TrEMBL record:
Entries under InterPro entries matching the protein: AbiEi_N
Pfam family, one: AbiEi_4
The species this protein was found in: Streptomyces alanosinicus
Top-level division of the source organism's lineage: Bacteria
Residues covered by the AbiEi antitoxin N-terminal domain: 86-131
Name by which UniProt lists this protein: AbiEi antitoxin N-terminal domain-containing protein
Length: 134
């Protein structure tokens, strides 16, 4: 194989690789654009949520009459509203609400309680303890 043949093969491979690179760039650019648009929409939704939360009265948590049709969040908030001064541990809350006390269920509720703390409905007087914000 001579040098000119080697250069021709190298050029052919270069051309194929450049074409493949262009083919790959197009969907990447589309995904990048879609990601930027989706992230912008998410930022708008977060800002809207913050504005609505700031305008809502502090006692905007719904009261639930029928525990059979209530969501777990509603049942949790109702339990804290019924016992405003009581400090709950997650397991105690599960037992009171008749929820399963297995570790995965406890962890899901712990996450829910964390959200309620961040929303300002509950407070954490100690590690693993939750009570209604006064």
């Amino acid at each position: 194989m001579n040098v000119s043949e080697l250069l021709r093969l190298l050029q052919a491979e270069h051309d194929e690789t450049a074409a493949r690179t262009d083919q790959l760039r197009e969907p990447i650019e589309q995904f990048t654009t879609a990601l930027a648009e989706t992230e912008a929409r998410l930022a708008e939704l977060i800002a809207t949520r913050k504005v609505i939360d700031s305008l809502a009265p502090p006692d905007h948590a719904p009261t639930v009459a029928d525990p059979a049709t209530a969501t777990v969040y509603q049942r949790i908030v109702t339990a804290f509203n019924e016992h405003p001064g009581k400090v709950f541990r997650v397991r105690d809350l599960h037992e009171q609400l008749g929820l399963p006390t297995d570790k995965p269920s406890i962890n899901v509720t712990r996450s829910r309680l964390g959200r309620l703390v961040r929303q300002g409905l509950l407070e954490q007087p100690g590690r693993g303890q939750y009570q209604k914000r006064m």
